[in-house]
Design brief:
about 210 residues, alpha+beta
Length: about 210
């Protein structure tokens, strides 16, 4: 595998990050008012993992499963991750632990390259801290059935195609429909919201 992309990514993560300007280019219009996270926001962390598959760099996403009717994120596509537990020594450990639990990723295979700009999610009151990692070998993923409906292995090249960014209407509930929501089209699956915003910052670093 060509390591130049990883080297470029490592270098970009050490520079001032594109931040909210890049994130909010993939936000719905009702989400574009930037508000600072409240002091009582719950901490969470996710892992954007690069790994080789069929001679191309890929990123792994999950389609969330939930048995809780009040879960605002059920069915959405996201990076592996979740809330920080008291036993976690750091937010980085939270990201690695959650990835291990949700997709069976061996944390010892992961080299953490850096972190992206944190992102507050008002609907669930989570402050999400995205970490970027790399595995030299293709991981053997195993979904945690109670939390993960499906594992999506997406070529980075696909995310970088301009035509992958589209807009659609999303019906969130019987009474709520969002119009013209920006999203990444993953072979018919809709990657939108906070994860799309994080992905866009990541792609901005690579495009720079």
């Amino acid at each position: 595998m060509d390591d130049r992309l990883i080297q470029q990514l490592q270098s970009g993560l050490k520079q001032p990050l594109p931040g909210q300007e890049a994130q909010y280019r993939m936000a719905h219009v009702v989400r574009r008012r930037v508000e600072p996270p409240p002091a009582h926001a719950k901490q969470a962390a996710v892992l954007a993992l690069f790994y080789p598959l069929q001679e191309r760099w890929h990123l792994v996403f999950i389609e969330r499963q939930s048995l809780h009717p009040d879960d605002r994120h059920a069915g959405q596509i996201s990076f592996p991750g979740g809330r920080q537990e008291p036993s976690d020594a750091s937010l980085q450990e939270t990201a690695l632990r959650e990835a291990e639990e949700e997709v069976g990723l061996d944390r010892n295979q992961v080299e953490v390259l850096g972190r992206l700009t944190h992102l507050y999610i008002p609907v669930s009151n989570y402050l999400v801290n995205p970490f970027v990692g790399m595995a030299r070998q293709t991981p053997q993923f195993t979904p945690e059935e109670a939390e993960v409906r499906d594992i999506l292995q997406v070529p980075l090249q696909h995310l970088m195609y301009p035509d992958t960014k589209q807009q659609t209407d999303l019906q969130l509930s019987q009474n709520i429909t969002l119009r013209n929501v920006p999203y990444f089209n993953l072979d018919g699956k809709v990657l939108w919201g906070a994860t799309a915003m994080i992905v866009n910052e990541l792609l901005t670093i690579l495009n720079n």
